[in-house]
Amino acid sequence: MLLTCYGLKLTMADLKRTQQCLSKELTTDYLTKIANRRFFYQHIQQVQAQRFTLIIIDIDFFKSINDEFGHDVGDKVLTELAALYANVLSQDCVFARLGGEEFAVYVPDDNQQYAIDLSQQLLAIARTIELNKQRNVTVSIGVSFKAADESLAEVLKRADQALYKAKNNGRNQYSLA
């Protein structure tokens, strides 16, 4: 009986570890080791904040980085950028890779000056990643602020529109929605 209880306890501990590993895999981006798209959207829907800031970041000319320097360099750019950003973002923020070369930051307030300062900092950090002597990484950023009566879909749409505005205006900049 004692051996059965001990065996059952070990099995339960193994199951718990397996469940924790699976949960982490479901919510973490495999390459960058930051939150993934699923976790990001679940988090925003769970907090149901009246107001927040959404920042969408896209690496400029990422396809050409992969084509010119190789996918291993592209992967290194993604992991390095993710690590650098994760180190400067506040614990209150949620930082995730949405997919490909696109990242997002959830900021739990709607302070416009903070969003501008953070966007400028994120732009500068990206430029520290050197591809070769003549070329550094750049990003474009779209920022939107959630109004109290606005849906998540509307906030995302406006952030995407701001991102495309930044790209259309020459890249390596941010745009506010």
UniProtKB/TrEMBL annotation:
Cofactors (names): Mg(2+)
PROSITE patterns with a match to the protein in the record: GGDEF (PS50887)
EC numbers: 2.7.7.65
Biological processes, Gene Ontology terms: cell adhesion involved in single-species biofilm formation; negative regulation of bacterial-type flagellum-dependent cell motility
Domain GGDEF: 50-177
GO cellular component: plasma membrane
SUPFAM superfamilies xref list: Nucleotide cyclase (SSF55073)
Pfam families according to UniProt: GGDEF
Name of the protein this chain belongs to: diguanylate cyclase
Catalytic function, reaction form: 2 GTP = 3',3'-c-di-GMP + 2 diphosphate
NCBIfam families: GGDEF (TIGR00254)
Alphabetized CDD domains for the sequence: GGDEF (cd01949)
InterPro entries in alphabetical order: Diguanylate_Cyclase (IPR050469), GGDEF_dom (IPR000160), Nucleotide_cyclase (IPR029787), Rev_trsase/Diguanyl_cyclase (IPR043128)
MF (Gene Ontology): diguanylate cyclase activity
Source organism per UniProt: Pseudoalteromonas prydzensis
Domain of life of the organism encoding this protein: Bacteria
